[in-house]
Write a structure and sequence with these properties.
This protein has 18 helices and 23 strands. With about 575 residues, it is α+β, with helices and mostly antiparallel strands. Strand 5 and strand 6 form a beta hairpin. Helix 8 runs antiparallel to helix 9 and helix 16 runs antiparallel to helix 17. The radius of gyration is 30 Å and the shape is globular.
């Protein structure tokens, strides 16, 4: 009940106290809108998730639900909304939309003081109009078509008859926002939002303020490139499916606009690296052609941001490297990263795929125009990692290395077999007894490069070396034919995770001889995931059309239900004060 009280009180008070009252505009054009679904929709969503969690019948939860559905003077099917409007003087004002049908009769069951505390500030100015007298000025409350609209006095005559039209673009969202950058000057955002934040940061950390100032410059350039940014979350009360989505629309004539207009999705040669639907834990991949904006201000500012991070990394190494050899390696690596960034940012096309299957094999492949630089970077990374290694460790790696031992569809394949425990011991000392039981665990690492006009790199890593090699070569064989990109471009399967736990992880866990109750719970967790079914997925997909880019993340209700079941199990089980999630 306190949550309901806080929500209503907060919305009413924010309308009176949040922003100036004296601003006037020739036409009401909100640059920012925020919309929330009705009380009934929100309660239905809460009941659906509470049912999954087994708390739907809890007395406290039922009390909140009953209170929310029985607020007098409020339409339980009406939306909530907030709109922000800017004017030529640089001020910003807020307009609040509430589904209050009768302000004088509105009452929260058991908490009449909430609305009673507000009514003394109301002065009736007509049948459907009230003035709200506050210490910082006068606000107006308008009763319009079953809604209460609270607005600064200067905007009262410009509110549309149906104020819901201000939020029409957000109808599909349970909670959504829209930022129309063409209706607000950047200087207004800077003075009201960025400026105060920068000032507070400078008082706390001058170094962080410099980074923040650079980020604001990136925002300024993005402001010049984009006209509209919108997004939100949509929840289906019946299925519990959740979608988090958004889109951005470029300004006419902008560099990003020209880039979006030239976007084309292309066939991929890496379909084999996406795995199969019945044996995949996660899978990502895409192939497209799109004019890049390598010389844009946004790209340059982002590059500067990364440069600062890399320089900080270099400074940290210098503090610990007395010989200077590691610094020299790091400087060479950073230069290679710069060269790769420059080349890849300008080519305007990419083809990649990444997946993990239930056998524990990780696959990754991508095309490139920087093969030589990437190979150089890999050699530098290997030199950096083994700089302080013993001769024994280097010999172990060399004995298990086999370069260019096979060729598949123009890819030259190499491999290294890494005895995991023995390698760790050479760097970190003797392994604990429970870990030493895994001494026969061997990590198979495979990589393949394709030279020539169409350069590419592919990698496979697996605990079952034979299966990893077989899967890798089969994926390489499929590169001979380009096929349409698999949609959605990204997918995570909870059933695939369950199979991974059962087939690959469980046999390893058994070797460490864990307590029987912990092992039993591990089996339960794996079974819950494995039995989730093909519909228990998390997906991501995107699209670029003309001047608009959109992206959507979707979590199925079945996936949410499965995750909640595992969380409930972790709460119910306890091993010596440790929840099961910590135990494993």
């Amino acid at each position: 009940m306190k949550a309901i009280t806080s929500l209503v009180s907060g919305l009413l008070l924010s309308a009176m106290l949040l922003l100036p009252t004296s601003v006037r505009a020739a036409e009401l054009q909100p640059f920012f809108t925020l919309k929330t679904s009705s009380i009934n929709t929100l309660v239905s969503v809460a009941e659906r998730f509470a049912g999954m969690a087994g708390t739907a019948d809890a007395a406290e939860f039922r009390d909140i639900v009953n209170t929310a559905r029985n607020i007098r003077g409020v339409d339980p099917n009406g939306i909530f909304g907030v709109a922000a409007v800017a004017d030529d003087t640089g001020g910003i004002s807020a307009i609040v939309l509430l589904p209050i049908t009768d302000l004088w009769r509105a009452e929260i069951p058991g908490r009449p003081e909430v609305f009673d505390s507000i009514r003394p500030f109301l002065v009736r100015r007509g049948e459907n109009r009230f003035d709200i007298m506050s210490p910082i000025g006068t606000y107006v409350a308008l009763q319009r078509q079953g809604y209460l609209v609270i607005t600064p006095e200067g905007f009262a005559d410009q509110i549309p008859a149906d104020a819901r039209t201000l939020f029409a673009d957000l109808e599909q969202y349970t909670l959504g926002f829209k930022l129309d950058l063409e209706k607000v000057e950047f200087e207004t955002l800077e003075s009201t939002l960025f400026g105060p934040l920068l000032l507070m940061t400078m008082m706390q950390s001058p170094a962080m303020a410099t980074q923040l100032e650079n980020i604001f410059e990136i925002y300024r350039e993005l402001y010049n490139e984009f006209a509209v940014v919108a997004g939100g979350i949509a929840i289906n009360p019946q299925t519990a499916d959740v979608e988090l989505s958004g889109f951005a629309v470029t300004r006419e004539g902008s560099e990003f606009g020209r880039s979006f207009a030239g976007y084309r999705r292309l066939p991929t040669i890496f379909s084999g690296f996406r795995g199969t639907s019945d044996n995949t834990v996660f899978s990502f991949g895409d192939s497209s052609s799109q004019p890049q904006v390598a010389d844009s201000a946004v790209t340059e500012l982002s590059k500067q941001q990364w440069e600062a991070i890399l320089e900080g990394f270099l400074d940290q190494i210098a503090m610990e490297d007395e010989s200077g050899e590691l610094v020299e390696l790091a400087e060479s690596a950073i230069e290679s990263i710069r060269n790769i960034f420059e080349a890849e940012a300008r080519r305007g096309a990419f083809d990649y795929a990444l997946s993990l299957n239930a056998d524990g094999t990780l696959l990754f492949a991508f095309d490139t125009v920087s093969l030589a630089e990437i190979q150089k970077l890999a050699e530098l990374a290997a030199a950096f990692a083994t700089k302080n290694a013993s001769e024994e460790a280097r010999a172990l790696m060399a004995d298990n290395l086999n370069q260019g031992y096979a060729t598949v569809e123009g890819f030259r394949v190499s491999r290294v077999q890494i005895p995991v425990i023995a390698t760790v011991e050479l760097f970190a000392g003797p392994a604990p007894d429970d870990v030493a039981a895994l001494r026969d665990l061997t990590l198979g690492v495979y990589w393949a490069v394709k030279e020539g006009d169409k350069q590419a790199i592919a990698v496979a890593i697996g605990l079952d070396s034979a299966k990893a090699e077989q899967t890798f070569k089969a994926a390489l064989a499929q590169t001979r034919t380009a096929v349409p990109v698999q949609r959605p471009v990204g997918m995570f399967s909870l059933a695939g995770l369950g199979k991974l736990l059962q087939q690959t992880v469980y046999p390893i866990v058994v070797k460490t001889d864990p307590p029987a109750n912990e092992l039993a719970t591990f089996r339960q967790v794996a079974e819950i995931f494995a039995s989730a079914g093909s519909g228990a997925t998390i997906t991501v997909d995107g699209e670029v059309t003309s001047n608009r880019m959109s992206v959507a993340y979707r979590i199925s209700g079945r996936a949410i239900e499965t995750i909640i079941s595992v969380v409930r199990l972790s709460i119910e089980q306890d091993f010596g004060g440790r929840p099961v999630i910590q135990a494993f």
